[in-house]
Specification:
By secondary structure, this protein is mainly alpha-helical. The chain is built from two helices and no strands. The radius of gyration is 17 Å and the shape is elongated.
Length: 89
């Protein structure tokens, strides 16, 4: 399965493609936010750093990924509603 988000005026993507891409990106974003804010701890990390720093770094990385996928979800939903007049399900 692949998700394609294309930029520019002339996109040949269907509305269902934009909707599914937005839903998938939103789900990944919610999962990343949950892990970044509510996870009890992270295993692994860089060996020579203390556990607190490794946990903080993991939260920062998951939060950054959540923001990225959240912005992709917003863009996909904007494409879905922009293509509403074309009715190309």
């Amino acid at each position: 399965m692949a998700i394609k988000i294309s930029f520019g005026e002339s996109t040949n993507s269907s509305r269902i493609s934009s909707l599914m891409g937005g839903i998938i990106c939103l789900a990944l974003s919610v999962l990343g936010i949950y892990v970044a804010l509510f996870a009890d701890g992270f295993g692994g990390g860089i060996l020579f750093l203390p556990e607190a720093i490794n946990s903080f770094a993991g939260r920062i990385l998951f939060g950054s990924g959540a923001l990225l996928t959240g912005s992709l979800a917003i863009y996909a939903f904007m494409e879905f509603f922009r293509n509403e007049q074309s009715d190309s399900f």
